[in-house]
TrEMBL record:
PANTHER family: RIBONUCLEASE H2 SUBUNIT A, RIBONUCLEASE HII. Its main location: cytoplasm. It is found in: Cytoplasm. It comes from Nakamurella panacisegetis. A divalent metal cation binds at D28, E29, D122. This is Ribonuclease. Manganese or magnesium. Binds 1 divalent metal ion per monomer in the absence of substrate. May bind a second metal ion after substrate binding. Keywords: Cytoplasm, Endonuclease, Hydrolase, Manganese, Metal-binding, Nuclease. It catalyses: Endonucleolytic cleavage to 5'-phosphomonoester.
Length: 240
């Protein structure tokens, strides 16, 4: 079966529920590779009561913007409990992209009406759990950026290409992508030179050309190596 025809299902989620999980947070992130705008994490809560997967649901990258928008009401009804969290470009600059992913994910979890007892992430890296700090003698551990956000106490499962095969993660990707794209479209009105409504902050040829001409805006990730005059466009182009 080709990637484009893959239909996500709930087999993994239901396997975890049969193993004792009662409230599974299926999560996915968007915007990690962008040059501007927030990094965003969506979450869908999967329980034993979840119904049939909405028709047409796929990883958000395989859907047109119109298809994603059209799916939103069905995904929200199907999920019942869902949320989207963001970490800003300034926060990415201050704490780094992995910690920003953790912050966005915990902000999403904080919006849910109740705690979850396990998490399923797309990919092979658990960015949600707090890493053990490496400290020198007598060094005081750093305080969390937002101490009131929920911590992850249950297991965190990772699955490569979960957004293609796991319906909960695919639903989370649609929620996150549509909300982040909406934010970038609104930013386009304030920063028209960068065409955020078209590129959504990613390093397209037009976006790179605008950066080389105008330099970064307040919503660019200034700690990153952004394009400057003389850089090759191909070096910065990335997937949407």
């Amino acid at each position: 079966m080709s990637v484009g025809s893959t239909r996500p299902h709930l087999r993994l989620e239901k396997e975890l529920l049969r193993g004792g999980v009662t409230r599974l947070a299926a999560m996915d992130e968007v915007g990690r590779g962008a040059l501007a705008g927030p990094v965003t994490v969506g979450v869908v809560v999967v329980t034993a009561r979840i119904g049939r997967v909405p028709a047409g649901l796929k990883d958000s990258k395989l859907l047109t913007p119109l298809a994603r928008e059209s799916l939103l009401p069905a995904v929200r009804r199907w999920a019942g409990e869902y949320a989207v969290g963001h970490a800003s470009p300034a926060e990415i600059d201050r704490i780094g992209i992995i910690a920003a992913l953790r912050l966005a994910g915990r902000r999403a979890l904080a919006q849910l009406p109740g705690p979850v007892d396990a998490v399923l992430l797309d990919g092979n890296h658990d960015y949600l759990s707090e890493p053990e700090p490496v400290l020198f003698d007598d060094e005081i551990p750093p305080l969390p950026l937002e101490p009131d956000l929920p911590t992850v106490t249950g297991p965190v499962y990772t699955r490569i290409k979960a957004d293609l095969t796991c319906a909960g993660v695919a639903g989370a990707s649609v929620l996150a992508k549509t909300e982040r794209d909406g934010l970038l479209r609104r930013l386009a009105a304030d920063y028209p030179a960068y065409l955020f409504d078209v590129n959504k902050g990613y390093g397209t040829a037009e976006h790179v050309a605008a950066l080389r001409e105008h330099g970064p805006s307040e919503v660019h990730r200034r700690s990153w190596r952004l394009p400057v005059a003389g850089d090759l466009v191909d070096e910065f182009e990335s997937s949407r």
